[in-house]
Amino acid sequence: MKELVEVIAKKLVDNPDEVVVTEKKDGRNIIIELHVAPQDMGKVIGKQGRIAKAIRAVVKAASTREDLKVDVEIV
Q1: What average pLDDT does the chain have?
Q2: Residue 18 exposed, middle or buried by CB count within 10 Å (0-12, 13-18, 19+)
Q3: Can you give the pLDDT at residue 67?
Q4: Contact at 8 Å (CB) between 3 and 72?
Q5: Which end of the chain is more exposed for a tag (fewer CB within 10 A), N or C?
Q6: Which helix (H) or strand (E) holds 61?
Q7: What is the pLDDT of residues 19-33, one digit of tens each?
Q8: Residues 6+ apart with CB under 8 A from 24
Q9: Residue 25 belongs to what domain range?
Q10: Tens digits of residue pLDDT in 43-62
């Protein structure tokens, strides 16, 4: 899941070198934190949060295959 979020985020931003994705596991729950450069924050969130919702939807679809609950937080 971490790699999936990282690939998506790097394609969206102007500074792909500053994209950092961390993963915290707690049983079947996984929290993925996405850190981007301050000037790229709007590109990852999108208008009215549409891109952020799309990223979360893709990760949720991928996580159902593995029977996991994954939350994506943009920090």
Answers
A1: 93
A2: middle
A3: 85
A4: no
A5: C
A6: helix 50-65
A7: 999 999 988 899 999
A8: 30, 31, 32, 33
A9: 2-74
A10: 999 999 999 999 999 999 99
Q: How many domains does the chain have?
A: 1
> Which residue in the block uniquely carries the two structure tokens 């790229």?
40
CATH number of the CATH domain containing 57: 3.30.300.20
Give 4-31 as a DSSP string. HHHHHHHHH-S-GGG-EEEEEEETTEEE
